[in-house]
Amino acid sequence: MSETGEKHWLVRQETVRLLWRVGLAVLALLVIGDFFVHGHPYSRIDGTFGFYAWYGLITCAAMVIVAKGLGVFLKRRDTYYDN
Description:
By secondary structure, the chain is mainly alpha-helical.
């Protein structure tokens, strides 16, 4: 909170809700655009409907899982800076 007791605009509940709605609308428009834009697929799988949407989702989830796994191995003790 700031000195006036007001939350930052990105933390306010109404702003978060608005950002979710705008983000979901943009994603829906991009998937709907797949009906109107003719792609030039290199293989059979990237010519499927919504390929880039689900590929991006799976890739993002994989990056989060790999980052969590790396965090287990690269983590330091809480007292690292005390030494």
